[in-house]
Specification:
Helix content: 40-55%
Structural class: alpha/beta
Largest sheet: 7 strands, mixed
Mean pLDDT: 94
Number of strands: 7
Number of helices: 10
Low-confidence stretches: none
Length: about 240
């Protein structure tokens, strides 16, 4: 967590205005478009990452669907994941995160700003309602980010099993599924250091409805996980070489 403190100190004079603007854009009465809100947040995140000595390299952004109404499914390595995705993804998205995180300072305001949704994983009825909300939002042309592992992996670049239930919104909305491979995203915040780090974000070829319809959500989860892990393994080898 040393880097978080370092980021705050490096941007100390900017934080008050950033926080004010994020709160304002997250209010129900705000008139900014989703693109404008996301664009402002992306500027902040890019600046924070740079001053935090983290270089984020993106690959395959041209594979992101041209039409809105898709869901990003990345592996989950740590707290830096969302910062890496916001910096590299040119299209606005909402995010589904665990409900308890929606009460954390700044996270709460950012979630309101990007119209994210908190999920109580212990409440089946509430989880079903979140699936319904995401389905309807995606059908309406919004994009979402869902971490299919359900929790962050603590095994570096090794993924946990992807949960089939996290793909129900995509199946119900019949939308493109975009696998995203994060590499070394655990290092910026999980290692007690402020040395320079490089995180890779690989946007993989989307999986369209005609490819996954008829498959069980568990099978879809296994397919997405295998493609992400394969990309991670291939690129970790390149880094080591």
């Amino acid at each position: 967590m040393n880097r978080i403190a370092y980021m705050v100190l490096r941007n100390f004079y900017r934080v008050p205005i950033w926080f004010y603007q994020i709160c304002r854009m997250g209010s129900p009465s705000d008139t900014h478009t989703e693109e404008e809100r996301y664009g402002y947040l992306r500027q902040i995140v890019t600046k924070v990452n740079k001053t935090g000595r983290v270089t984020v390299k993106s690959f395959g952004t041209e594979q992101i669907p041209d039409k809105d109404g898709f869901i990003l499914f990345p592996n989950h390595q740590g707290f830096f994941d969302s910062l890496a995705l916001i910096e590299t993804c040119p299209r606005p998205f909402g995010v589904v995160i665990k409900k308890e995180a929606t009460n954390w300072i700044l996270v709460k305001q950012v979630i309101a700003m990007i119209k994210g949704i908190g999920i109580d994983r212990s409440d089946i009825r509430a989880s079903m309602e979140v699936i319904r909300q995401v389905t309807e939002a995606v059908k309406g042309g919004r994009n979402f980010l869902i971490f299919p592992e359900g929790t962050r992996s603590r095994n570096g670049n090794q993924t946990l099993d992807f949960k089939g239930g996290t793909f129900k919104s995509a199946v119900n909305a019949k939308c493109p599924i975009v696998p995203v491979a994060l590499i070394d995203s655990y290092k910026p915040f999980d290692i007690s250091s402020i040395k320079k780090e490089t995180v890779q974000v690989h946007y993989l070829e989307p999986i369209y409805p005609e490819e996954y319809l008829g498959m069980r959500t568990k099978e879809i989860a296994e397919l997405v996980q295998s493609r992400i892990q394969k990309t991670i393994d291939e690129n970790v080898v390149k880094i080591m070489e």
